[in-house]
Amino acid sequence: MTVDFAALKSLRSASADRHILDLFAEDSDRASRFSAMADGLLFDYSKTNIDEATRTALFDLLDVAGVPEKREAMFSGEKINDTEGRAVLHTALRNLDGGPVMVDGKDVIPGVRHTLARMDDFADRVRRGTITSYSGVPFENVVNIGIGGSDLGPVMAYEALKPYADGPHCHFVSNVDGAHVHDVLSGLNPQTTLVIVASKTFTTIETMTNAQTARDWLVKAVGEEGISKHFAALSTAKDKTAAFGIDPDLVFGFEDWVGGRYSVWGPIGLSLMLAIGPQRFAEFLRGGQAMDTHFRTAEWQDNLPVLLALVGVWHNQVCGYATRAVLPYEQRLLRLPAYLQQLEMESNGKRVAMDGRALPFDSGPVVWGEPGTNGQHAFYQLIHQGTRVIPCEFMVGRFGHEPGLAHQHELLVSNCLAQSEALLRGRSLAEATEIMRKKGFEGAELKRQAQHRVFPGNRPSTTLAYEKLTPFVLGQIVALYEHRVFVEGVILGINSYDQWGVELGKELALALQPVLAGEADGAGKDGSTLQLVDYLKMNG
Ligand SMILES: O=P(O)(O)OC[C@H]1O[C@](O)(CO)[C@@H](O)[C@@H]1O
């Protein structure tokens, strides 16, 4: 059933002028009543303008949209991706000790565990040096070639878990820009490099082009006969990996019920597993699995994915804030915003509902961000004093991994907390005037200078706090966001699991390549595209 935001919009209008600080003044227990905890992860959404009545109205959406039924439909393998006729079962990849999950009458779990065991064995042997390069030496470097979900998940997680990485060094090539593959390969010794071609479909032009470049690079060093030792593939398309010449023993397959942006939990996570080892990779899976259990069993008011989703819907569809910033105060989460951009925007950037009718409200928000404190010295100016409201999602850990630098960690945490406090509290004109008066300003110049130093405040933010960024905690965070996307998608009534919006550009690029090469004319192209072709073509 289509949800209706009318009740929420009236609540919004009635409270539009209210300051979030008033909510704290009215309720001394607000912080804990508007927070929830899941296996050590604390989500605090008290610094938003959501009150009891709003929260109740938001909870009502869940039943109207059928979240409980659809959640069970997803976990039990129903084909909820109905524009592609597929189940959505990334949760099966981290189902380490649950029961069977049936797709088309077949339990998929034995296959998942078999592939995981093969990955474990392969990673273990590469790490111990018993699987070697063609010349018989251990692999020191791994290059993952993939794009989108076949890149962002592993690279994000590899960066996040660097303190746990004691295996070969991992490198990631994604862009079809030759600069990327060139710059990565030119720093490496082909004799000790394992190349992983990560592509669900094994047809993505960027990945296949980069894979061919890497192949040529390896052939020069190890010869055609050495190639099979230096390549592995992660894909659903075994016929295509075979056609590329990859040894079937080094192909790790998965099924079409794992979407690209949800695939880091399985074979696509192989580079991460090689880096941190199978045991820590299992901890990552356990974190995801713990979040699955929490999502399926926790009451709405305690349910982190549900709460994140409802805060998101409140800010985006009800308040009309078009973007949200993800601001991890954790340098190693530097790729998390990019990862979440794909996860959230490819999933919920849809213009029509399941039934094909135009959405009567906005689709998912624009997601962006950077780690703190770097962002503070770049775009936070706009967040604090710009005319648009940007809900901020802070993330911060209690401990870093550098015990000798605890003082730096304290500074990091205080910056994170200071930012959400500043957004909430702001600085009034009276306070700004007083500050400037003390600096010696007076009269009209005092007024003018003070205005520039006003912070409106009353700007919403949430904070996700965790003990330490371990593999388990990263698993929890990633699964938390996956389920948040699911709940938002169900409320909006869209299919979060297809991505037709990326197709048109791909088709046009294929058609433009011969035009750029001078092998086809640009009949039917618009004037701007033709002018740019004319300027950019290399052979003319
Ligand atoms: O793993 P593949 O099949 O190469 O696809 C890569 C990416 O391309 C997309 O299909 C979008 O173009 C993503 O959904 C996916 O993660």
From TrEMBL:
Q: Name one Pfam family in it.
A: PGI
User: What protein am I looking at?
Assistant: Glucose-6-phosphate isomerase
Pathway stated in the Swiss-Prot or TrEMBL entry: Carbohydrate degradation; glycolysis; D-glyceraldehyde 3-phosphate and glycerone phosphate from D-glucose: step 2/4; Carbohydrate biosynthesis; gluconeogenesis
What reaction does this enzyme carry out catalytically?
Answer: alpha-D-glucose 6-phosphate = beta-D-fructose 6-phosphate
EC numbers, comma separated? 5.3.1.9
Subcellular location(s) of the protein? Cytoplasm
Predominant place of localization: cytoplasm
Q: Which PANTHER family match?
A: GLUCOSE-6-PHOSPHATE ISOMERASE
NCBIfam families found in the cross-reference section = PRK00179.1
Give the positions the UniProt entry annotates as the active site.
E346, H377, K506
Please give the start and end residues of each transmembrane region.
none
Cellular component terms, GO, for this chain's entry?
cytosol
Q: Which UniProt keywords apply?
A: Cytoplasm, Gluconeogenesis, Glycolysis, Isomerase
- The enzyme's first-digit EC class, named in words, is isomerase
Report the record's Gene Ontology biological process terms: gluconeogenesis; glucose 6-phosphate metabolic process; glycolytic process
Q: Which organism is it from?
A: Celeribacter ethanolicus
Q: What protein family does this chain belong to? A: Belongs to the GPI family.
